[in-house]
Amino acid sequence: MQTIPQPTSPDPKVPDPTWRKPAGILALLLYLVVYAGLATRLADVLGSLPTVLMALGYMLLGIAWVAPLRPLFLWMNTGRWRRG
Fold first, then answer.
1. Per-residue pLDDT tens for 51-80?
2. % pLDDT > 70, the chain
3. Letter string b/e over residues 7-40, b meaning 16 or more CB atoms within 10 A of that residue's CB
4. pTM for this one?
5. Separation CA 58–CA 50 (nearest Å)
6. Residue of 8, 10, 62, 75 with fewest CB within 10 Å of its CB?
7. Do the Cβ atoms of 22 and 73 come closer than 8 Å?
8. H or E, element range at 39
9. 13 pLDDT higher than 90
């Protein structure tokens, strides 16, 4: 009886894809929807601030969404939430 070989990555250092990739993508999309909703609510508050503070607020909101995603991407690739 002949066995069918399992597909493997051509590079032995690269692991085969797991369920973490699609789960991570769904978590990312959910996070972005929630973050966009919060940023939209803050737009009314930011709009009433002086121009310099409004610009700083929008810059902060434009950059701050990335920081919490590092552990998610690490988990998607390694299965761990932290390096080590």
1. 999 999 999 988 988 888 989 988 888 887
2. 80
3. eeeeeeeeeeeeeeeeebeeeeeeeeeeeeeebe
4. 0.68
5. 12
6. 10
7. no
8. helix 20-47
9. no
Q: What is the C-alpha separation between 74 and 84, in angstroms, rounded?
A: 11
Q: How far apart are the first and last CA of the chain?
A: 43
What is the token pair recorded at 46? Answer: 């930011």
How would you class 64 by CB atoms within 10 Å of its CB: exposed for 0-12, middle for 13-18, buried for 19 or more? exposed
What ranges do the domains of the chain cover? Answer: 20-78
Whole-number Å distance between alpha carbons of 69 and 53 = 26
Positive/negative CA dihedral, 39, 40, 44, 49: positive
Residue 5 has pLDDT above 80, yes or no: no
Sorted by sequence, the CB contacts under 8 Å of residue 26 that are 6+ apart come out as: none
Provide the residue type at 45 as one letter.
V
